[in-house]
Design a protein that fits this description.
Rossmann fold, 20% strand, 2 domains, 378 residues, globular
């Protein structure tokens, strides 16, 4: 926080743009830093905005941080909010979850007159004297997301801007368990170390439990909720996602005779199911299964994670199965090479596996994968 204020003061005096990158793993405090920077600088009279690429995250911030205060709500924007913004109209832009930066700000909703080939990263850097990017390089989950540390560094330097990079090493999510996060990265093949080296500390307060059935996973989570904890079930995108029918969500996520709907797609509550953007934080969300697009950026006391058939354990390691994945962002015109698909799927499960604050309950419908997880947990 003090470093950001110092850089803002330097930029104001020298009129030179300074780009700050804050990188760290899940639960390292990036979003807490983002909100602290936003609040402190706004109170000090600086022109500052917060932006993300996530509809769920932004709407939740508007609902909670900006509760009944339209002025505060207006501080929270999207990455594509700056298509027509002038240069340096802000003192500071806090770009949270920057790993979700896209190539351009164009979408199907962009008006024809606003469409541009201009890079989104250029828009975000241009709009503020001090753009602050907070990101996790291992949370890129879509083809076309270009907000890595190197992407931002290289572009800023190509424009002649000074870059300050801060790496966060503390761990606040997952019960503060850096060993658990390290274990997740190892078993998913996101580090150079192999799964046999991945061990969990039996004395670690963060609990890792393997369920033998989805019913068992659900019942254990419900017991934690009875004790006052928060909990959600999340899964890989391995089942179709139907629109609501006759005012009811469809039980698309089926494993044997266990069935649940995905979270509500819409903007309004359907029965007990909260709107899509508020699934992670509003009452009624436990009745549905969340995916990467509604879980990323949030945490719960307990996460129930279904490792779908798109990631199974074979021959001593996890292997991706493209044919089992139903995510439309990986198919059709969004087709990505197999190697990139494999990496993105591993990133998806890294995110899902690190949503818990107190513990995680794992389940895989694949018997061989369950056996492997039992050994890895032991």
């Amino acid at each position: 926080m003090d470093l950001v204020k110092h850089e803002v003061a330097l930029a104001s005096k020298s009129r030179n743009k300074r780009v700050i990158i804050v990188s760290g793993g899940p639960g390292s405090g990036k979003s807490a830093i983002a909100l602290s920077v936003l609040g402190d600088l706004a109170r000090d009279g600086y022109s500052v905005l917060h932006a993300t690429g996530s509809r769920s995250f932004t709407k939740t911030l508007r609902k909670n941080a900006g509760y009944r205060d339209t002025r505060t709500q207006s501080l929270f924007k999207y990455f594509n909010s700056f298509i027509n913004a002038d240069t340096d109209v802000l003192d500071v832009l806090v770009a949270d979850e920057s790993h979700r930066i896209r190539k351009t700000s164009n979408s199907r909703y962009t008006r024809a007159k606003d469409r541009s080939s201009r890079l989104q990263i250029d828009e975000l850097i241009s709009v503020a004297r001090v753009p602050v990017f907070l990101l996790d390089d291992n949370q890129v989950v879509r083809s076309g997301e270009l907000g890595s540390t190197e992407d931002i560094k290289n572009y800023a330097k190509s424009m002649g801007y000074e870059v300050v990079h801060i790496e966060l090493t503390e761990q606040f999510r997952c019960g503060g368990s850096a060993k658990y996060v390290d274990w997740v990265e190892q078993i998913l093949g996101l580090t150079d170390r192999k799964p046999p080296e991945a061990t969990l500390d039996p004395d670690d307060p963060f609990e890792v439990i393997l369920a033998s059935t989805p019913y068992q996973m659900e019942m254990q989570l419900q017991e934690h909720m009875k004790s006052g904890d928060t909990a959600r079930i999340v899964a890989g995108f391995c089942w179709p996602w139907s629109n609501a029918q006759s005012g009811q969500l469809v039980d698309d996520v089926t494993i044997g005779d266990w069935a649940k709907p995905w979270n509500n797609k819409g903007e309004r509550r359907i029965g007990d199911a909260p709107p899509s953007a508020l699934w992670a934080t509003r009452e009624g969300g436990f009745g549905q299964v969340g995916c990467i697009y509604t879980a990323q950026g949030f945490e719960f006391d307990w996460a129930g994670v279904i490792l779908g058939p798109d990631l199974v354990w074979r021959d001593g390691r996890f292997q991706s199965v493209r044919s089992a994945n139903r995510d439309p962002h990986f198919s059709g015109r969004n087709q990505v090479p197999n190697e990139l698909f494999d990496l993105l799927v591993r990133h998806v499960y890294k995110v899902l596996l690190t949503r818990g604050m107190k513990g995680v309950i794992l389940y895989s419908p694949d018997p061989e994968t369950r056996d492997a997880l039992q050994q890895l947990i032991s």
